[in-house]
Amino acid sequence: MSAHAPTDTIAAIATPPGRGAVGILRLSGPRAFDVATRIAGALPAGRSSALRAFRDAQGRIVDQGLVLCFAGPRSYTGEDVVELQGHGGPVVMDQLLRAACALGARAARAGEFSERAFINERLDLAQAEAVADLINAGSAAAARAAQRALDGELSRQVQGLTDELMSLRVFVEGALDFSDEDIDWLAHDGLHARLETLEANLRRLRADCERGRRLRDGLIVTLTGRPNVGKSTLLNALAGADIAIVTPIAGTTRDVLREHLDLDGLPVTAVDTAGLRDSDDPIEQEGVRRARQALEQAELALFVLDDREGFGAEDAAALSQLPPQLPVLRVHNKCDLSGCAPAREEIDGQVRLKLSAASGAGLDLLRMEIRRFAGLGDAAESPFSARSRHIDALRRTGEHLDAARQRLAQKTMPELAAEELRQAQDALGEITGRVSTEDLLGQIFASFCIGK
Ligand code: GDP
Fold first, then answer.
1. Are 330 and 305 in contact, with CB atoms under 8 Å apart?
2. pTM score of the predicted model
3. What is the edge-to-edge ordering of all strands in the sheet holding 300-306?
4. pLDDT digits (tens, 9 = 90+) for 307-350
5. What lines the ligand 1 site, CB under 6 Å?
6. Which burial class, exposed, middle or buried, applies to 236 when counting CB atoms under 10 A from its CB (0-12, 13-18, 19+)?
7. If you measure from the C-alpha of residue 229 to the centroid of ligand 1, how many angstroms do you get, rounded to a whole number?
8. pLDDT tens digit sequence for 142-184
């Protein structure tokens, strides 16, 4: 760990901005009890609460509420922590924060409480990230996955792999010491079998992390196609509410609408874009420009067309305007009018769905297809939440293991194999923060909210 134990005391309003029944000011650090005593008088014993008047630095009463004390190291941050639970008005909370700062604390940066929990080894990095993921979860399933990561599920798996890797390194480095003797330790079948098992476990963890990342980050899906085919109606049907303005006049959708949907646990940002067509109307032209911008960020395009008309030349032209690498799912809408039953068809590996956005028939097929695309399929849950940072670390771990295997097979320079294994372990260590840099920590904690 690169960071040093902090010596100052931090304070932050831990409840969201605005008005609420209760507002919480949180203090952490060596002077937390001292600052709290000057605001609230005698403190209650640890882990019990007391009702107190809260005073500012000049001794004026600004509020009254509950005081809770947690003596370090058995606290969230590992330091002495106090919570002052007052009335949740912005003015009251601001006065309390000012009082704390005037009496010896300083305003905390975003994520600084969790950063201290990490520095004091109350949480590892993956768990600290899970705290933020839990707060930001876009669906109940994402929240449950974050809770499991916070509970240490991801960290335990990473630790398991680290232990396997460690014992492999001990074996290889031990064998290097015997390299003058004619026993060929490094060609030993057991070694290769262990390396293979390790690689298989790594792949499994990576697949779990991919699902966990999906649940955390969700999927950006764009609805596209010619005007009037029913994109807005489909978005409304998926969202279960009237968000887009639906009219029978072509070119109604002039702006880019974003809607956050919970697709059986998968958070989806659905983007409804202006019909991709040439127009003389400057407002519609602007809509088309924004549509193209939104398409650049999308991960999946639902290409909507009118099933009565089928896939025509105009559709082909609209389809050709999509970014070439963007995966496309064809949605034949208005099947109530074409007289076709809702269906999923696969032609030359290209999936197309027939449904009716207006009646809702076939929408379940679409939901399922999107989940399948996201790699979630029928799995209702992911074992834990994860981030692309974790997946990247696992990918690099895999690359080093692969390189180590090749070096071992060549038998020429086993030291290089040992070095690859060391680097694999370092990459793995980045997930839980055993190996980290100030830069990385700064980046991670800055994305947290203030007071956490
Ligand atoms: P957009 O321009 O692609 O967004 O199309 P809209 O969603 O505004 O729909 C255009 C028209 O088609 C509206 O009158 C909708 O009510 C109608 N519509 C959309 N989907 C369906 C459907 O599945 N069945 C039927 N019968 N009408 C639909």
1. yes
2. 0.77
3. 257-263, 266-272, 219-224, 300-306, 328-333, 350-354, 343-347
4. 999 888 888 888 888 888 999 999 999 999 999 999 999 988 88
5. 227-233, 246-248, 252-253, 275, 333-334, 336-337, 356-358
6. buried
7. 6
8. 899 999 999 999 999 999 999 999 989 888 887 777 655 545 6
